[in-house]
Amino acid sequence: TIEDVFRAHWRELNAAGKSLDAEKRWTPVLDNLTGFLAHDNAARITRRDAIRWKDKPLETLSAKTVRDVYISAAKAAFGSALNNDVLDANPFASVKVKVGKKQLDREKGFNDEEAIAILKAAWNYRRPSKKEFQTTTDAKHWTPILAAYT
Fold first, then answer.
1. Contact at 8 Å (CB) between 77 and 91?
2. Residue that wins the pLDDT comparison between 18 and 35
3. What region, left, alpha or beta, does residue 109 occupy, with left being phi > 0 and alpha being psi -120 to 50 degrees?
4. Angle formed by the axes of helices 22-37 and 72-83, to 10°?
5. What whole-number distance in Å separates Cα of residue 150 and Cα of residue 141?
6. What distances in angstroms separate CA 45 from CA 1, 34, 52, 72, 88, one per listed residue?
7. Residue 136 has pLDDT above 90, yes or no
8. pLDDT in tens, 88-130
9. pLDDT at residue number 25
10. Nearest Cα to 12, choosing from 106, 92, 113, 86?
11. Rounded distance, CA 14 to CA 20, Å?
12. Tens digits of per-residue pLDDT, 40-80?
């Protein structure tokens, strides 16, 4: 079953001491996949099924989430089943999700007003209490000034 494929992969990850939260993180993926396919037979999943399933969560989730959680979980679990001769193919192996680059709302760095505000705050910084080490106070005063200079 599809569930057996995922559980075997989780056991393998746990035995290696990796991704101890994989089961918790991937259970919704497993549920979503079996619900979408309306069956639980891992050997019946085709590449076409995998592509159709990939497109469904893209209706409500970000492309990055679908790629990094849904598709990567299925690829890993079915890849493990393939490596262990449980399945003859990994239908998710070549399924990809394009993720666009995040658009910046503005240029990188500070504008003049922001830079002036930071430098004024650094220049006027005083030790708030005896609990703060003098070296910490000095760092809060000089680091922004030195960074702006360099």
1. no
2. 35
3. left
4. 90
5. 15
6. 11, 10, 11, 16, 11
7. yes
8. 999 999 999 988 877 778 888 888 999 999 999 999 999 998 8
9. 82
10. 86
11. 6
12. 899 999 999 999 999 998 889 899 999 999 999 999 999 99
Query: What SS3 class is residue 29?
Result: helix
For the chain, what's the residue count? 150
> Token pair for residue 32?
């979503």
The pTM assigned to this predicted structure is 0.64
Contacts of 149 (CB under 8 A, 6+ apart): none
Q: What is the pLDDT of residue 34?
A: 92
Look up residue 49 and give its two tokens. 């099924």
Is 19 a residue whose pLDDT tops 90? no
Give me the helix-helix angle, 134-149 and 112-123, nearest 10°. Answer: 150
Query: What type of residue sits at position 53?
Result: W
Structure tokens at 139: 């760092």
